[in-house]
Amino acid sequence: MRPDDLACLRTPGAATVTPDGSTAVVAVTRLDLDGDEYRSQLWAVPTDASAPARPLTHGHRDSAPVFSPDGRWLAFLGAESGGKPQLHLLPTGGGEARRLTDHPLGAGAPVWAPDSRRIAYTARVPEQGRYGTEEGVDPAAEPPRLITTLKYRSDGVGFTVDRRQHVFVLDLPDDEADDEVPVAEPVQVTSGDHDDTDVAWHPAGTELVFVSARHPRADRDLVSDVWACRPDGSHLRRVTESRSSCSAPTYDPDDLEGRTVYLAAQPDLGPDGLDFVGRGTVPCRVDAAGGHPQPLLDPAKHDLGHDFGRVVVAGGDLFVAVQKQGAVELLRVPLAGGEPEALVDGPYTTRGIGVGGGVVVATVAHDRSAGELLAITPGRRRLLTGFGALLQGTGRLHAMREKTATAPDGYPVHGWVTVPDGPGPHPVLLTVHGGPHSQYGWSLFDETQVYVSAGYAVLQCNPRGSSGYGEEHGRAVRERFGEVDADDVLAFLDEALQEPELDDTRVGVMGGSYGGYMTTLLVGRTQRFAAAISERAFNDPVSFVGSSDIGFFFPDQYLGTDPARVAAQSAMAGAHRITTPTLVIHSEEDWRCPLEQGTRLFVELKRRGVPSELLLFPGEGHELSRSGRPRHRLARLEHVLRWWGRWLPTTQNSSAAALPAGASAAGDEPG
C-alpha cells in the first residue's frame, strides 16, 4: 500500500435493516485527496445477496442511516461540503431526500419513535454570540471565557461549556404534505450546564432515555447515568444511581411496557468514581423504574472497548461486539439467560451491528478490508459486499501473522508480524498502539500496510495494559507504567527477531499517544534502535495534569500520586539520555496529549545535538492519523517514510530520503 492508496479505502459504518429484513443500508466513507475532505454516501444491498450493493444517495457526506419502524422512511445525516450534518428524510418508496434541520453546529444521529412520526436526536447548542451565531463576530473577537470547572473542553470538539449537547424531538410533516409545507421546528427537550447524549425511545413512545452526568460530583468523576423524561421534557427522573459510566441505553422493542433498560457500562468506578483503569465495558440491564446496572457479561473477562457502536436488542436477544485477543466478536446474548453465542469470531473485527426481520447484518473488517457487510440468519452467513476490492486490486496488501512471545516473568505477549514480499532479512519497525487500554488486531491498518509495502517488517503486540485480554491484563500497568508493559514490548521484539526474515541489526521504533510515550521511554533507556518516531505522546505526566482535557484524572489513576514513583514512570524524565535520532510528530490543536508534550521533547533533543525534527500539523487534534484532513494524513505517511528512508533505507523506500525536511511529497504546505 502506498500513501496515496488512502484514496482507495472504503470504510462502511453500521448498517440499518428494513423491518422485514430484506434490505440493508450502510454509509460508506472514502478520502477525497484532491478535495481534501471526506465523502460518504449511502449504499443499499439485499440481505439475501441476490444483487450487489448499489448507491442509494449521492450527497456530499451522508451518514447514520436508520429505517423507520414502519419501513416507509429512511432518516440519515447529510452534510454539504464544508457544512454541518443535518437531519434528512428519504421515502423508501421513491423520491428525493428532504432536509429537516438547520442546527448551527450540526445534528446528531436520528432515533425513530415507535410511531414512525417523530425523531429524537442530540445537538450542540451554542452560546449566543459564539460559534457564528452573531454575524460579523470573528472567533478572536468573542468575549473571554470564564472557566470554573475541570471538564471544560474535549479533544476533537474544543470548548464544551459554551456549546452543551442536548436532546431534541422533531415531529414529521403529515404524509399528505408536499415540500411546500414547512417542517416543524425541533423542540429542545433538555437543557442545563451539562451534556446529554445517547437518546432512545420507550417502546410505547411515551418517554425518552438518555445519558447525562448531573450528580453533585459530575465535574470531578467519570460517572454518568441514564435519565428519562417525557418527549416534551417534563417528568425528568434519574434511572441509574450508581458508580457506573453508562452509555447507549435502549429497550427491548417487544416489551411495550418498557420494564427494562439495556445499556453499556463500566459497572463500578469505585467510591471516587475515577477507577477506570482496565475496567471492561459490558452490556447491562437496569429496571426502568430505577436501580443499579446489572452486568450481562462478566466485566473481568469481557470488554466492548471504547468504540463499540451500540447495544442492539431484538427478538429476545441482545447483540454486542466484544474485544477478544485482537479480534472483536459479535455476540448474541439471550435476555432470558443462557450462554452467549458468537455469531462472528476468528480473525475479524466487528465494527457495526444492524438487525431487522430476524436478519443480523454485521459490518466486519479483517486485515485486507476496512469492512464488509455480512448477513447472518440461523445456520447461514452471506457476504453481501466487496467494498475492499478496490484496495485489494492494487496487489499491495499483506497478510498479518500471529505470534506469541514470552516476557521475562513468563507472561505471554500476543501480537502480529507482517513481512514484505521477497527475500529478507528486512529492516524492522516495532510499533506500539495508543491507549494503553486498546488493542491491535485483525483489521486493515493503513499504516502497517504502507510500511510493509515500503520494505519494512512490522511488529505489533498487545502488552499488559491493553484491552481484549481481561481486566487483570488491563490493570497490570497501574502505577507500573513503563515496567511490565515495556518488558512485554521488548520481549515480543526479541523473540520476533529470531526469525531469519527479520534483520536484527536494523530496527526502528514508533508509536502514538501511549505508543509515543513507550517510544520516548525506550529510546531513553537503550541505544538499540536506529531511529524513532514519537507521535502525539504522553511524555510528561506532571505538565499533562494541567494541560490535557483528561489531565485531572488520567495520570493519577495510571501512575499514582507519589512524586518519586511518578518520576520513575515518566518518559520525559529520561529524555536527557536519548541519543537515538527522533522525529517528533504532533498536532497543534491536540488537547488530549497537548502540543507542549511534543515540543518539550524536541527542544530537549535539539539542544543536545541529537538528530531530531518536529513535524507539526495545523488545525488537527489527537485523531490526526485516523480522521485528520486527508491531505494531512497523506503528508504524515510521506514524512514517516522519509524519516525511515533516511535512517533505515530500503530498496522500495530509498527515494523518500531525498524529500527535504519540512516539505511534503504531495506538494502540501510545510508540515
From TrEMBL:
| Residues covered by the Peptidase S9 prolyl oligopeptidase catalytic domain | 442-648
Name of the protein described by the UniProt record: Dipeptidyl aminopeptidase/acylaminoacyl peptidase
**Segment forming the signal sequence:** none
UniProt keyword annotations, A-Z: Aminopeptidase, Hydrolase, Protease, Serine protease
Question: What GO biological process, any one, is recorded here?
Answer: proteolysis
InterPro entries in the record, alphabetically? 6-blade_b-propeller_TolB-like, AB_hydrolase_fold, Peptidase_S9_cat, WD40
Q: Which GO terms describe its molecular function?
A: aminopeptidase activity; serine-type endopeptidase activity
Q: Read off the lineage from the record.
A: Bacteria, Bacillati, Actinomycetota, Actinomycetes, Geodermatophilales
This chain's source organism reads: Klenkia brasiliensis
